[in-house]
Amino acid sequence: MARKDNSNSIASRLSRIEVDAERTAFDVVRDWFALENMPYETAVERIEAEFNLNTSTAALVSFFQKHCVGFKMRNARALAAEVKKVLAESDESFDDASMALAEQRAFELAVENGGDVADLVSLQKLKIERIKLQLQREKIDQDNRRITLLEKKAAFVDEMKDKSENREGGLTSEDMEEIERKLKLL
Amino acid sequence: MTDREYLILRNILRQLAEADGLLLLALHLKQDVEMATPRLTSTEFDDALASADSQRLVTTVSSTRGTKYRLNDAGRAWLSENR
Questions:
Q1: Best-predicted range by mean pLDDT among A59-68, A95-104, B51-60?
Q2: Strands across the sheet with B24-25, in order?
Q3: In 3D, which of A44, A34, A38, A42 has the Cα closest to residue A14?
Q4: Fewer CB in a 10 Å sphere around the end CB: N or C, chain A?
């Protein structure tokens, strides 16, 4: 079980500083290390400049070990799992080996980019694009069905026109009934 | 094994444990172990990783992108005994 932070530790002190409604300085510094791979010396200076807190490299090493390692990997794992899920839900049939490979590659990319949020955004965009494509496909299907119906109507009208032109007295009452019935159906 | 070697080995295995069964490229592993281990040299890291491999604590996979590592059962057992 992880030990609780000392109230005077850098993690505790950063947690008490609110940056906005949802984030504290703790989240900001964790992102510096986990997402940006910021060197400790730079982080010491920025923590002092931005949050008015004095700290040391040793304190930040401890902060990294305790709070950043798991966070970065969790982000990368979550992204990889999301990619696998998207593939599993897609129309294409991927076998288990392909999906495991895609998950592994996504994980590596996420680790490479520090589990960058931009990647997650790209993934969401990918999902949205997939949904858009699906909608487009449905619209094309509907249009095709409409065109087929219009073609049938046109062919029927042509047929009736031929009948009326080639027969003395024009269309019979049976023809008229057929026209009504077919137009209702179409 | 010196205290320093022990610390580096533990940091390597902890990092791999966080990958939860997925393979981690040596390059990425090194980046995070460097952050968790002050003043880590490349030689120290390479030696510790070779030691983990020779003790069969990790599974090694060669790929076109480089060598990848994963914590195996023996590595998990080592970590649980060396928290």
A1: B51-60
A2: B24-25, B66-71, B58-63
A3: A44
A4: N
Count: domains in chain B: 1
List CB contacts (< 8 A) between B31 and chain A. Answer: 37
What distance lies between CA A117 and its chain's CA centroid? Answer: 12
Q: Give pTM, 2 decimals.
A: 0.66
DSSP string, A137-180: HHHHHHHHHHHHHHHHHHHHHHHHHHHHHHSTTS--HHHHHHHH
Q: pLDDT tens across A43-67, in order?
A: 999 999 998 888 998 899 888 888 8
Total length of chain A: 186
Phi, psi of A100 (to 5 degrees): -65, -40
Q: From chain B, pick out residues whose CB is under 8 angstroms from the CB of A111.
A: 24-25, 28
Contacts of A64 (CB under 8 A, 6+ apart): A33, B35, B36
CATH code: domain of residue B22: 1.10.10.10
**Which among B18, B23, B65 is the nearest to A70, CB-wise?**
B18
What is the spatial distance between Cα A12 and Cα B45, in angstroms, rounded to a whole number? 31
Q: Provide the residue ranges of all domains of chain A, joining segments of one domain with +.
A: 130-186
Note whether A61 contacts B36, CB cutoff 8 Å: yes
Burial class (CB in 10 A: 0-12, 13-18, 19+), B62: exposed
